[in-house]
Design brief:
Layout: H1 2-35, H2 45-70, H3 73-98, H4 104-133
């Protein structure tokens, strides 16, 4: 159980750190072009916390922990990318289909970033947790 908590914490820190940087440098400038005054000066913390905390829980349960137990970083990479593409794609393509100010450039940037971010966070989270906690030793027989 401790290993799962460490895996969650490490993955969350990586995810939040990378996303905070990208939101400022990559995503916000792209979104400002189309949304302008629709954007808050700074994000609302409570809704963001709900998303991030839940997203990392789902990521650990569905991808990170099974890949950690299997000692399979490749599995973590592709399954993390798949979850990222699904989650960010749902948001971006739904908005593109329903909101007049949503642009294909916004979709391309955020969809690509979410896919890369989720995969990278999953792999790095497993790798760092392995350094801290050691590998899972499979029980046989």
């Amino acid at each position: 159980m401790l290993t799962v908590l460490v895996l969650y914490a490490v993955t969350a820190v990586i995810f939040l750190t990378l996303d905070a940087i990208a939101l400022r440098v990559l995503v916000k400038p792209t979104f400002e072009k189309s949304l302008g005054d629709w954007l808050h000066d700074s994000p609302k913390i409570a809704p963001a916390a709900v998303f991030y905390l839940f997203y990392v829980v789902a990521l650990v349960v569905l991808v990170s922990w099974p890949a950690y137990v299997a000692s399979d970083l490749w599995r973590a990479a592709w399954q993390g990318a798949l979850i990222g593409a699904m989650a960010y794609g749902t948001y971006e393509f739904t908005n593109l289909s329903t909101l007049t100010r949503w642009s294909p450039q916004m979709v391309a940037v955020d969809f690509t970033w979410g896919t890369i971010l989720t995969s990278t966070s999953t792999v790095a989270g497993i790798w760092i947790t392995g350094l801290i906690m050691g590998p899972i030793v499979a029980q046989t027989g």
